[in-house]
């Protein structure tokens, strides 16, 4: 386990995220918090997680998103053996009406 995860985490970031009241607030907060590259990477990982959860294969996801196979593999590993974060949000996102 990395030293980062052994250190007691600050709850400020997580509380800040939980305090957001709309998608617009969340977008603005993340734009302030992250670089464009970081935000795009997070967006891509979420898209990959949704596609993997739908049963898409790596080559299909790669062609559709352009993300690397390493990123697809990392997201897949997290879906299967991670902390359960994707499993918490994916069902909730599926229940939302399409924009």
What does this structure look like?
With 99 residues, the protein is an all-alpha fold. Helix content is 74%, strand content 0%. It is globular and about 40 Å long.
What is the gist of this entry?
It is built from 7 helices and no strands. It has helices at 3-6, 12-19, 23-33, 36-53, 58-65, 69-81, 85-95.
Cα distance spanning the termini: 40 Å
The poorly predicted ranges are: none
Helix count equals 7
Alpha-beta classification: mainly alpha
How many β strands by DSSP?
0
Question: What is the helical fraction, as a range of percent?
Answer: over 70%
Question: SSE string, helix = H, strand = E?
Answer: HHHHHHH
Shape label: globular
Could you tell me the radius of gyration in angstroms?
A: 15 Å
Largest sheet: none
The fraction of residues assigned to DSSP E strands is under 5%
- Report mean pLDDT, rounded to a whole number: 92
Features:
single chain; 99 residues; mainly alpha; 7 helices; 0% strand
Break the fold down into its secondary structure elements and pairings.
Layout: H1 3-6, H2 12-19, H3 23-33, H4 36-53, H5 58-65, H6 69-81, H7 85-95
Helix pairs in contact: 4-6
């Amino acid at each position: 386990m990395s030293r980062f995860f052994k250190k007691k985490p600050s709850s400020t970031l997580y509380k800040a995220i939980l305090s957001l009241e709309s998608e617009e607030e969340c977008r603005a907060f993340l734009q302030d918090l992250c670089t464009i590259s970081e935000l795009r990477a997070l967006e891509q990982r979420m898209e990959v997680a949704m596609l993997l959860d739908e049963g898409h294969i790596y080559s299909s996801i790669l062609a559709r998103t352009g993300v690397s196979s390493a990123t697809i593999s990392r997201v897949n590993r997290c879906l299967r053996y991670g902390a359960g974060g994707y499993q918490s949000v994916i069902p909730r996102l599926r229940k939302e009406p399409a924009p």
